[in-house]
UniProtKB/TrEMBL annotation:
PROSITE patterns recorded: RIESKE
Keyword annotations of the record: 2Fe-2S, Iron, Iron-sulfur, Metal-binding
Gene3D superfamilies linked to this entry: Rieske [2Fe-2S] iron-sulphur domain
Protein name in UniProt: Rieske (2Fe-2S) protein
Length: 107
């Protein structure tokens, strides 16, 4: 997770609505953000729209390191948003946390 800023934390939903192993897209301040709940309970967040051809990143398979877009299977790193395939571009990555059962994000 890079792109950590000092902006205000924005509450976007409840942890109970996002099960381990699940990703969901949220509308946050006019932006579509994909939030993923890892099997270890931690969260990751990226832009929800794939830079390749607009695929729904939140619906992709993921592990602790990467999410794979479901349309053409390009993978993006949670660490920096970069694609593991050269020339595809990158997604924004955001700080996201569980605060006493509430999902909060910093854009
Ligand atoms: S739209 Fe995401 S890999 Fe093509």
């Amino acid at each position: 997770m890079t792109a950590v800023s000092n902006e205000t934390a924005i509450p976007i939903g409840q942890m109970d609505d996002l099960q381990p192993g699940e990703g969901r897209a949220y509308g946050v301040e006019g932006r579509q953000v994909a939030v993923f709940r890892m099997t270890d309970g931690t969260l990751r967040a990226t832009d929800a729209v794939c830079p390749h051809r607009g695929g729904p990143i939140a619906d992709g398979q993921f592990d602790l390191g990467n999410v794979v877009c479901p349309l053409h299977q390009y993978a993006f790193r949670f660490s920096d948003g970069g694609c593991t395939t050269e020339g595809i571009g990158s997604v924004g990555v955001y700080r996201v946390e569980d605060r006493s059962g509430e999902i909060v994000i910093w854009l």
